[in-house]
Amino acid sequence: MTADSRTMSTRLADWARLKSPWVTVFNSGACNACDIEVIACLMPIFDVERFGILAKGSPRHADILIVTGPVTLKQSTRLRRIWEQMPEPKYVIAMGACGASGGVFHDLYHVMNGVESTIPVDVWVAGCPPRPDEIINAVVTCLNLMKEDLARGGKEWRQKKTGEAPASGPDSAGVPA
Ligand code: SF4
Q1: What is the Å distance from ligand 1's center to 145 Cα?
Q2: For domain 8-159, which CATH number applies: 3.40.50.12280, 3.40.50.10540, 3.30.70.1050, 3.30.450.40?
Q3: How far apart, in whole angstroms, are the C-alpha atoms of residue 125 and residue 114?
Q4: Ligand 1 atom at shortest distance from the alpha carbon of 30
Q5: pLDDT by residue (tens digit) across 3-25?
Q6: What is the residue with the minimal CA distance to atom 5 of ligand 1?
Q7: What residue ranges do the domains of the chain occupy?
Q8: pTM (predicted TM-score)
């Protein structure tokens, strides 16, 4: 589907989604430091609501899911269920070293070693924990991906890039290869 073939209501919904993404957060077994950095994004210093980024409690209303923690065995099924409840198009941000690989919890008996063990990830944010400005940058990266996906009719164009070098920057959120 090209941008021109979309109906007026679809274009309006896509425009609203890009201008004001709704974000929900799931703790998959984090030490809570990542969650505190996410909360800092909502506080007056960073105040992401001024950019239209809204925190939502229900995954059924969310466009973007931020996952903190290494994904424990217990939380894995819950994470999958929450992701399945989100409407398309949906995007996932894996927070910190834990979200990428399990971090300091890597290879523990009860750990799945990162978010991608359970659900597809769109953007990774480096750090332990990442800073609030890096989290905001990850949301912006998600919005850029969303814009590109809407224009290209889905996420398939990104899957074709498997095997190429990642397009991400050296110290912040990036687009998966
Ligand atoms: S990445 Fe670091 S700060 Fe975040 S949950 Fe893991 S150990 Fe905690």
Answers
A1: 25
A2: 3.40.50.12280
A3: 12
A4: 5
A5: 457 788 888 888 998 999 999 99
A6: 30
A7: 8-159
A8: 0.86
